[in-house]
């Protein structure tokens, strides 16, 4: 998807994907990841999600990647924190205690820059990408995180009624994208509160664990 689409959304404040509170699946299912305090959790395409403040409050270290500098300005303002800022190639690195954010195209992020992560939480990231970008994205996440365990939130809805993003990602597509690298378990599904764009929708939570070597 053209980066201008997202820059425009942030510049004009059309960010209805932003939840004003930590994601309910994250809060209810984080224990499934069985992470110790201080574990590093990666949030791809993080926007200014409140999940970051919540994870920090739970004693985790958060690493995010986000295209929009405006989103990250707002994130740090919401956190009431002034980050240190350095340039790393095409990416800007904004850091504060417990928090590293890479501002720029996630496809420019390397495993070396990201460093070791213990888990990934994908909410409104995979589903934000059109079909022709998803393979590349999923492979990039696997490479970046070295198949770290993942919680992945997807949507199901009638695509004849709703135009994404967020895009519907049926179970067989989750398996096609991640089935080689991970063993997949659907942990939960629930109707989206108030529907999506006026139509019924369902959200699903997937738990991805590195598949045993063949
Ligand atoms: C639907 S929003 C979700 C934000 C956040 N995960 C949340 O739950 O509120 C998708 C975000 O991905 C960002 N984005 C889109 N393409 C990107 C890319 N190639 N690299 C980094 N971020 C990207 C957009 O700027 C936008 O903030």
UniProtKB/TrEMBL annotation:
Catalytic activity annotation: S-adenosyl-L-methionine + a thiopurine = S-adenosyl-L-homocysteine + a thiopurine S-methylether
UniProt main location, coarse: cytoplasm
Gene3D superfamilies assigned to the protein according to its UniProt record, in alphabetical order: Vaccinia Virus protein VP39 (3.40.50.150)
Enzyme class: transferase
Localisation per UniProt entry: Cytoplasm
Binding of S-adenosyl-L-methionine, residues: 10, 45, 66, 123
Entry's EC annotation: 2.1.1.67
The keyword Endoplasmic reticulum is assigned to this record: no
Keyword field: Cytoplasm, Methyltransferase, S-adenosyl-L-methionine, Transferase
Pfam hit, one: TPMT
GO annotations of cellular component type: cytoplasm
GO biological process, one term: response to metal ion
Molecular functions per Gene Ontology: thiopurine S-methyltransferase activity
Family: Belongs to the class I-like SAM-binding methyltransferase superfamily. TPMT family.
PANTHER family: THIOPURINE S-METHYLTRANSFERASE
Protein name: Thiopurine S-methyltransferase
Upper lineage: Bacteria, Pseudomonadati, Pseudomonadota, Alphaproteobacteria, Rhodobacterales
Protein's gene: tpm
